[in-house]
Amino acid sequence: MRLLINAFADRLQAEDHDSGCTWQDLVYSTICGRPSVAGDVEPVGVRERKMTRELEIARQIAHLPRQERLKTWKEKLGETGGIGGSEATLYRRLAQLGRIDALDFEE
């Protein structure tokens, strides 16, 4: 939608003869200057593997005291080649484990 609105602005600028080129050239240069959306997409399964790994780590460290748990969380996620996980992510995974464990308990 933003690209369409910018294209309208390019068209108006070209019609006012302020651009020095056609509106199509302005739109084309805008499109070429945008980063590729496909470049930011993770390959299939990467996100699921990452979450599975985070859940495994969270399960291993759930019993530790708060500060030690956070330190270990960041260290273990750093081992996988990425930057250390945030505290918020740790607590989301622990909450998921609670729900997962509750489902496992019912079986």
SSE string: HHHHH
- CA-atom Rg in angstroms: 24 Å
Work out the count of structural domains. Answer: 2
Uncertain segments are: none
Number of strands: 0
Give the SSE layout.
Layout lengths: L1 H14 L7 H11 L12 H16 L4 H14 L7 H20 L1
Q: Overview of this structure, please?
A:
With 107 residues, the chain is mainly α. It folds into two domains: 2-40, no CATH class; 46-106, no CATH class. Helices cover 70% and strands 0% of the residues. It has five helices and no strands. The protein has helices spanning 2-15, 23-33, 46-61, 66-79, 87-106. Helix 1 runs antiparallel to helix 2, helix 3 (46-61) runs antiparallel to helix 4 (66-79) and helix 3 (46-61) crosses helix 5. The longest helix is centred in the C-terminal third of the chain and has 20 residues, at 87-106.
Summarize, please.
The mean pLDDT is 77. The chain has 5 helices and no strands.
Q: What features would you highlight for this structure?
A:
mainly alpha, rod-shaped, 5 helices, 107 residues, 0% strand
